[in-house]
């Protein structure tokens, strides 16, 4: 027996990839995610390749994973893919302490983030 199969959350022309526990604050990661939202996949990969942000390498890996999922799992055409969504969420925050002057302590927070990228196949308007 077993559980019935759950309906797919995405449309038939969509695929997604999730990167969890990325060691960067969500605010900084959202700057890079905003760089690729709504763009064609080829343009987004080029933008991430030449971005000077450290986290752009991991965002590019996640985008390429979403493209591979679209191609291999859902039989979508890679040339017609667009980054439909790129949203960032908070993960855990590690708390560390550093000694300061006069016997006090300074709290250091090391935040982690989650990144979800959804690519969608669009028909050419031409």
Automatic annotation (TrEMBL):
GO MF, any single term: structural constituent of ribosome
InterPro entries found in the cross-reference section: Ribosomal_uL22 (IPR001063), Ribosomal_uL22_bac/chlpt-type (IPR005727), Ribosomal_uL22_bac/org-type (IPR047867), Ribosomal_uL22_CS (IPR018260), Ribosomal_uL22_sf (IPR036394)
Keywords (A to Z) from UniProt: Ribonucleoprotein, Ribosomal protein, RNA-binding, rRNA-binding
Pfam families with a match to the protein in the record: Ribosomal_L22
Family, similarity comment: Belongs to the universal ribosomal protein uL22 family.
Subunit architecture: Part of the 50S ribosomal subunit.
Protein name in the entry: Large ribosomal subunit protein uL22
Protein source organism: Afifella marina DSM 2698
Species classification: Bacteria, Pseudomonadati, Pseudomonadota, Alphaproteobacteria, Hyphomicrobiales
């Amino acid at each position: 027996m077993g559980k019935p199969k759950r309906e797919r959350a995405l449309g038939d022309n969509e695929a997604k990839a999730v990167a969890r526990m990325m060691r960067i604050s969500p605010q900084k990661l959202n700057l890079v995610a905003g760089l690729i939202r709504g763009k064609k996949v080829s343009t987004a990969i080029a933008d991430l390749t030449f971005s000077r942000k450290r986290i752009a390498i991991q965002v590019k890996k996640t985008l390429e994973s979403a493209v591979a999922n679209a191609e291999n799992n859902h039989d979508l055409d890679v040339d017609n893919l667009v980054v439909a969504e790129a949203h960032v969420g908070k993960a855990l925050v590690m708390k560390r302490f550093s000694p300061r002057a006069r016997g006090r302590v300074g709290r250091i927070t090391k935040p982690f983030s989650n990144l979800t990228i959804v690519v969608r196949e669009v028909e050419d308007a031409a």
